[in-house]
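Quick one: co-fold with 1-deoxymannojirimycin.
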Amino acid sequence: MENYHIITLPSGDDRSRKSLRRTWNQLPRCQRNLIILGIMALCLMILLYLPGDQIIRDADGQTKPEFVEKKVTTLNDQLNEAIQHPLRLGGVSISEHLRKIQPLLAKEQHFHGASNERQSAVVAAFKHSWAGYKKYAWGHDNLKPVSQTSHEWFGLGLSIVDSLDTMYIMGLDEEFKEARDWVEKSLKFNTNRTVTLFETTIRVLGGLLSAYHLSGDKMFLVKSAELGNRLLPAFLSPTGIPFSHVNLTALSAYSPPDIATSEVTTIQLEFHDLSRSTNVSIYERMASGVNEKLHSLDKTHGLVPIFINSSTGTFRNNATISLGACGDSYYEYLLKQWIQTGRKDNDDLILDYMQAIDGVLTQLMRRTPREHWVYIGELINGKDFKPKMDHLTCYLPGTLLLGHQNGMPDSHLILAKDLMDTCYQTYTRHPTHLAPEITYFATTDKEEQDMYVKPNDAHNLLRPEFIESLYYFYALTGNRTYQDMGWLIFQAFETHAKVEAGYTSLGNVKNTQDTRMLDLMETFWMSETLKYFYLLFSDNRKEIDLEQWVFNSEGHPLPFYPTA
Ligand code: DMJ
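Sure, here it is.
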């Protein structure tokens, strides 16, 4: 007779197996369930504590499946590979790689040239600028139009690369062709200069990619990929906040202790696009890592301090909060990346953007005491309100309207309209009809005027931000009043900034008799200001369709990704 209470493991023979089954069957159901549960728990524990590479533990004890760790290794390998071989993609030459993958996105776009007098006037302004640049600064970064000489910054022919898409959109075929040929033959990245990640990304990478998408010419994509590879050392920083400076020849990177927050957070549209266009994921993955890092940092009502440290991965303590210099395009790229990548619900990007605009409304927005002009001030030390607004902040109305068009709340639209009025006033209040770099606002009615400009802030660098906003307002509403506002400003540039060899920055917008020419034509004059004027004056407000294209921070249109 077998003892059915005994459940020790039987020997291997058939009889003992039968006896075990019988013993099992004779156990009460609850006892059997308990044993099954116990065995399951034991298996789970073995799995969890198994050493080696099957399951990996985080520092916080969370388990991660094996492929996550493998991906990390692959990411580093990919990064090192790209850095060590900047002229290659996926183990072959860039051209060969692109031949193999047949990029999906580039489709030659067709533009028909100026369709009215205002657009023709802008084209004439562009041609005048280009002629001066060609004559006195060809191949150099900037034209100095007063002294009729050149200025070098990165040694990358910045004015040429930054203007490519403007020429293409304006239908300036001859100029586009000479610029294109210069890029093919003379644009070299191994010039042993240190460049900034931000400026090189928005002006050069953005300019090349945009030219590629508009013209369908793969040469621009080959150049973009090489530049993308050469910029990758910026991501060797240990904290997820990239280094701000890169030597494109030594393939090394570094940052000063504090770098502008906007600089390291205004690179993603271009890096995402480069990945999509080359079918190589490394660029997109590195740039997305910046989003994740920024998302994880503590903010003040969604607002970020304007300085960050790439060694510690933290914001500078008590840094100013501003929607102007060093902060501006952080907010712009939250919205635009979300649009570029298919507007997914609950995306961290859009949550961060909405929270930030709430922060703008509650912490930074004020009205002047008499005229009730709405403006966006700053928080000095992250807390003390200062009624100062940079012209740079005048990009915000356009971005807010773009966001509203894409589902953001009406409070964004109201702020956009109010701020448009104020930005326009910063032009029309001055006898030159040009805006200064910085405007201050009254906080009490004891101050003489509602807005005023300090002597050192009265310069105008031919900046585009307000023209950009006018363009969005016209393109998205069809209201031609915005064209008239732009026309007034365009004529002001014609009157005060035009010189024999181009257009110059000015030192003083407060006096028509003493504008003090500063002798620099910034590259964004041709890449942004004139492009936005041209599109603003178009009879076809969808000349660039904002349902399909997103402008990078330097005014270069990039296509949306096809959504699944
Ligand atoms: C441009 O280079 C870009 O628009 C940048 O994001 C901000 N500053 C200038 C134009 O003012």
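If it helps, The first helix runs from residue 14 to 26.
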